[in-house]
Design goal:
The protein has 461 residues and is mainly beta. The chain is 12% helix and 42% strand. A six-stranded antiparallel beta sheet has the order 7-10-16-12-13-14, with no helix packed on it. Strands 19-20-26-22-23-24 form a six-stranded antiparallel beta sheet, with no helix packed on it. A hairpin with a 5-residue loop joins strand 3 and strand 4. Helix 1 packs antiparallel against helix 3.
């Protein structure tokens, strides 16, 4: 017996499962026990659709002998997806006058001075001409140059507080460029909109620039809707730390909740595709040039009460031939099928409700022969609490540094026991108890009959 097989055997002894229950569907897994003992599974949306419970207790795995095998969420210490890995750091921008908008006197030369320390950190930037005595070119429109540091964390987004002194209405289109050496630059996605509207004290803002997990040391923000400089009052960047041990962590996904029906005025009810771990919500008004205060609630199908998730402002406004709107709002992770949006003032048509989530990453231990299958959709099943962290630690100590379980991808859903598995089965008749009561009844009847017989046969006094 190998060490890996001994580890799996210990896990099975520690958490022996109960008798198997029926499941509506199954998903084939491309797992090879000879290649690795532990496999990572990023749950696809189809598994959430089939799960019967919000906590996914009915999702389990079986081997070729139809025996339950250890399966469960990646332990927190191994880089669980909902660990607090996001952090925000302030940035100080350098204003770099645009050379294409700078016109020095005829015959003058432009000098660009970039000062860095040994680690590559920017210290100073100067742009001057022969006639400017070494001073920064006055009045020239400037790009914003950012030094994001040399860390390996993914750059997720920039938060830009626009200066209210720039006026009550500010709209800007920004193109992001990225570089690792200040020499070669590449464009990052499409231009993005920034917005600040102050209407009688009610401020509408769109101040986030999405970076989508970018890895780059330097960023350049260029305003493309005019020659002005972005009036930035404060700037920060949101970083996402990398998992401690697992590579290629599942990326965030977005789904639209299905509109079901309207309730009271301004109340709209939606259904998520399953108990996905929602961590951000976005309300998009159906009509252009719309603004409303929104409250977003959720509940699980088995919970009659609504839980508040977010309250804020949703808007969708035309902007120079295109449109801009409010950004997604981050919330504490919520697993719920039912969602509600309440708008004030009441909107005439239902807005779109967009849900962002990061798929759960689970670990399977390949105990026994294949093929292995993932099962879901059971009213009676409850997955055991397998001690996966102990098993992963043991496998890592055997494999050495850099251990990371390979990825197994579930196939399409295949019917197993059908929809009947989603309903709790009626308990079988208690035949042993009924038989016992029958025996006791017969015994009591026999005793009564014996007493009556004795009374009849009693001789007269």
């Amino acid at each position: 017996m190998t060490i890996r097989h001994a580890i799996l055997a210990v896990v099975l002894v520690i958490a022996a499962p109960t008798a198997s229950a029926a499941h509506a569907v199954q998903f084939d897994l491309d797992v090879d026990p000879a290649r690795a003992g532990a496999w990572r599974i990023d749950l696809p949306l189809a598994v959430y659709r089939e799960a019967a419970f919000a906590d996914l207790r009915d999702v389990e795995a079986r081997n070729g002998r139809d025996e339950p095998v250890p399966l469960g969420p990646v332990p927190l210490r191994w880089g669980a997806p909902h660990a607090p890995t996001l952090r925000t750091v302030p940035l100080s921008p350098f204003f770099l006058p645009r050379l294409d908008a700078t016109a020095p006197p005829s015959g003058d030369r432009i000098r660009l001075l970039i000062e860095q320390d040994a680690s590559g950190t920017l210290r100073r930037i100067d742009l001057a001409s022969d006639a400017s005595d070494g001073a920064m070119m006055p009045g020239a429109p400037a790009d914003l140059l950012l030094d994001t540091g040399d860390g390996e964390d993914a750059r997720m987004a920039l938060d830009m507080a626009l200066d209210p002194a720039a006026g009550p209405a500010l709209r800007a289109r920004v193109q992001v460029l990225a570089s690792d050496d200040l020499d070669t630059w590449r464009m990052v996605g499409e231009p993005q909109s920034l917005l600040r509207l102050d209407q009688g004290g009610r401020v509408l803002e769109r101040r986030q620039i999405d970076l989508d997990g970018l890895h780059a040391r330097y960023l350049l923000l260029r305003r493309i809707d005019g020659d002005g400089t972005l009036p930035v009052a404060a700037l920060s960047m949101r970083l996402r730390g990398q998992p401690a041990r697992l590579d290629d962590w599942p990326q965030s996904a977005v789904v639209d909740a299905a509109f079901e029906r309207g309730g009271a005025a301004g109340e709209f009810l939606y259904r998520a595709p399953g108990p996905i771990p929602v961590d951000a919500v976005e309300v998009i008004p159906a009509d252009l040039n719309t603004v409303a205060t929104v409250q977003i609630d959720s509940r699980d199908g088995r919970d009659p009460g609504w839980r508040p998730r977010h309250q804020g402002t949703a808007f969708r406004i035309a902007f120079e031939g295109s449109e801009t709107g409010s950004l997604p709002a981050r919330i504490d992770v919520a697993r719920a099928r039912e969602w509600r949006v309440i708008t004030d003032p009441p909107l005439a048509r239902p807005p779109a409700l967009r849900l962002s989530y990061t798929p759960d990453a689970w670990v399977l231990l390949a105990q026994g022969p294949g093929p292995f299958r993932l099962l879901a959709g059971s009213a009676d099943s409850k997955r055991p609490d397998w001690p996966l962290e102990r098993a992963l630690d043991a496998l890592a100590s055997q494999a050495g540094p850099g251990f990371s379980p390979p990825l197994a991808t579930p196939g399409p859903a295949i019917e197993r026991d059908g929809d009947a598995a989603r309903t709790t089965a009626a308990p079988p008749p208690p035949w042993p108890r009924m038989a016992l009561w029958g025996v006791l009844g017969l015994g009591a009847f026999a005793v009564i009959a014996l007493v009556l017989r004795l009374l009849r046969e009693r001789p007269p006094a």
